[in-house]
Amino acid sequence: MSVINFVESLLRNGLGIPPTTAFNIERAHRALGVKPPVGAPPRSFVVKFAGYRLKEDILRRAWQARGFDFQGKKVFLDNDYAPEIQKRRKEYTAAKAALREKNIRFQTPFPARLRVHYSEGIVTYNSAQEATEDMVKRGLSVNLVKGHTTLLEQIKQRMWQSYGKKVNKGGMAQMPSFREKLQAFRRQSDDTA
Predict the structure, then answer these.
(1) Cα distances (angstroms) measured from residue 170 to each of 3, 28, 148, 158
(2) Could you count the other beta carbons within 10 Å of the beta carbon of residue 92?
(3) What is this structure's pTM?
(4) 42 vs 33, 55, 73, 75, CA distance in Å?
(5) Which has the closest alpha carbon to 131: 119, 148, 114, 117?
(6) By C-alpha distance, which of 154, 175, 177, 157 is closest to 166?
(7) How far apart are CA 56 and CA 78, in angstroms?
(8) CA distance between the termini of the chain
(9) What separation in angstroms does the CA of 26 have from each of 29, 31, 104, 169?
(10) Is the pLDDT assigned to residue 167 strictly greater than 60?
(11) Residue 131: CB partners within 8 Å, gap ≥ 6?
(12) What percent of the chain has pLDDT over 70?
């Protein structure tokens, strides 16, 4: 049995999808990584559907069912996000646990935000630090999350610093103008004469 056939069978049986629905799976393979030891959960599968709507329908069914069982193990489905997005989404773990404890509804919209449905209204947070700080102010017991640097801050940290060059307001080194180069050349030639 090919991986594509296995995935189709797994989804049909687990989610109750009728046999008349065509999956149109372009690719399916195991996620990269070493083979897990005996007794550990198996590696994930990565599946590429030809149609976006079918993928969204399958994910919606799986999320509503909160996963399904296969050979005594729980199977969950989710989008395959880039590593940086996964890292940022994982930062909300403490906040989501505190919200679950208080039975407060929340969502995690793409790319890495947290939308919380408080009784006063809906609040959307753009970072885990912002979310945990506000949740503490609201009286929820959650550990504060230290903020991560933005992409611009990371670029500035890794940027080469040039000595003797001007730096503009954005922290980027400015190249000297033609006139400044000419004046520096004239100064050097005057000093050597």
Answers:
(1) 50, 45, 19, 14
(2) 21
(3) 0.57
(4) 11, 22, 10, 10
(5) 114
(6) 175
(7) 10
(8) 85
(9) 11, 16, 38, 48
(10) no
(11) 92, 95, 114, 116, 125, 145
(12) 78
Tokens of 9: 């069978």
CB atoms near residue 77 (< 10 Å): 20
Long-range CB contacts for residues 9-14, cutoff 8 Å, separation at least 24: 10/70, 10/75, 11/58, 13/70, 14/62, 14/68, 14/69, 14/70, 14/75
Tell me the residue type at 33: G
Owner of token pair 């969502």: 107
Quick: pLDDT tens for 120-134: 889 888 888 888 888
- 13-37 pLDDT tens trace: 888 888 888 888 888 888 887 888 8
Nearest-angstrom CA–CA distance, 16 and 64? 13
- Spatial distance between the Cα atoms of 44 and 107, rounded to a whole number of angstroms: 23
Amino acid at residue number 120:
E
Axis crossing angle, helix 93-101 with helix 128-137, rounded to the nearest 10? 30
Residue 145 to residue 126: CA distance in whole angstroms: 13
